[in-house]
Structures are given as C-alpha cells and as structure tokens.
Amino acid sequence: MARPRSEVKITCQIPTCKYYLKEEKKDILKRGKNKAGHQQYYCNHCHKWFVETANTPLYHKHLSEEEIINICKHLVEKNGLRSIQRITGHHRDTIGRLVVDLAEHAERANNFLIHNVKLTPIECDELWSFVKKNKRKLSPAAQIAMKKVMLGSTQA
Ligand SMILES: [Zn+2]
C-alpha cells in the first residue's frame, strides 16, 4: 500500500519511534495547523502527532542524513573540518554550518547522536567539547544549548 508522501519533507520527531529522524521508509502525513500556526504532522509508524518546528535543525539542505551521520562520526574522532572535508568531499563551510546547526540545537542533536549515529553519552560529550574547542564563533544560544547537554566532565 503505497501512500504518496513526496511533498512531506519532515521526518518523525518522536524519539521513541523506530523511524525517529529517519528519511528512509518514513510515513508522515501532513494534517492542518495547531493553534500557534505550526504545521502538524502525523507519523503512521508510531501513531503520534508533532509539529514542524520540531524538525528543522537536522533537516539540512546540502547533506543527507547518512552524510550527517558520517560527519558526526568523524567529529567524534576529533577530525578537524579540513580533514573531514578531505575525507568526505564536502566543503568545510558546509561542514562548519552543520556543526553550528548541531550546536544551536544541541538537545535535539544529542538525541540524534545517540539514536542515529549510535554514540554513547561519553562520545557525545567528547564531540561537544571538540566542537567547543574548534568553533570559537558559536552564538551565545549555541553555547547555552551545548552546556545543557554536556556532562560537565570535560569542561575546561
Ligand atoms: Zn514516528
């Protein structure tokens, strides 16, 4: 039973769902707006509702989820943007923007790192301290967001 879903650009935002942030085989319906005016979606896998604002951070214009996962793995191995550029072929500006994106939505990104990249909390923490060290121009919002998800053990 194939359902048309081409125009739905969003992935499931329910962390307990098997299809959480998964592009492949997702089954999302677009259904009206909530009182705040946010587009509402329904996941046919976990049978839950969510709104569009939840998704934006990791929905990246230039990188597929697979590529984001790949880059995250390099980050946790403490590869700098230049060496990730060399390994993955993506321009370091693209990678840099992803890093900023991750940092600004650190809480959501942390879920992503655990569920999709399959990092342990310690590895997540290592990734964040690496980002912190390498990205000096992070916005205050990003710094606060990262601070929230970091375990505190590696902070200078
Ligand atoms: Zn779902």
How would you portray this structure in words?
With 156 residues, this protein is mainly α. The chain folds into two domains: 1-54; 57-149, no CATH class. The chain is 43% helix and 10% strand. It has a three-stranded antiparallel sheet with strand order 1-2-3, with no helix packed on it. The radius of gyration is 16 Å and the shape is globular. It starts with 27 loop residues before the first strand and ends in a 7-residue tail after the last helix. The structure holds zinc ion. Zinc ion binds at residues 12, 14, 17, 19, 43, 45-46, 48. Zinc ion is lined by residues 12, 14, 17, 19, 43, 45-46, 48.
Strand content: 5-15%
Task: Name the hetero compounds present.
Answer: zinc ion
Strand order of the largest sheet: 1-2-3
Outline type: globular
Question: Residue ranges: pLDDT <50 for 5 or more in a row?
Answer: none
Order of secondary-structure elements: EEEHHHHHH
Number of domains: 2
Distance between termini? 54 Å
DSSP helix fraction = 40-55%
The radius of gyration computed from the alpha-carbon positions, rounded to a whole number of angstroms, is 16 Å
The count of strands amounts to 3
Mean pLDDT: 84
SS summary, helix count: 6
User: What is the makeup of the main sheet?
Assistant: 3 strands, antiparallel
Category from helices, strands and their pairing: mainly alpha
Quick gist of this model?
Helices cover 43% and strands 10% of the residues.
Q: Which SSEs are present, and which pair or pack?
A:
Blueprint: E1 28-33, E2 39-43, E3 48-51, H1 65-76, H2 81-88, H3 92-104, H4 106-115, H5 121-134, H6 140-149
Antiparallel strand pairs: 1-2, 2-3
Helix pairs in contact: 2-3, 3-4
Bound molecules: zinc ion (ZN).
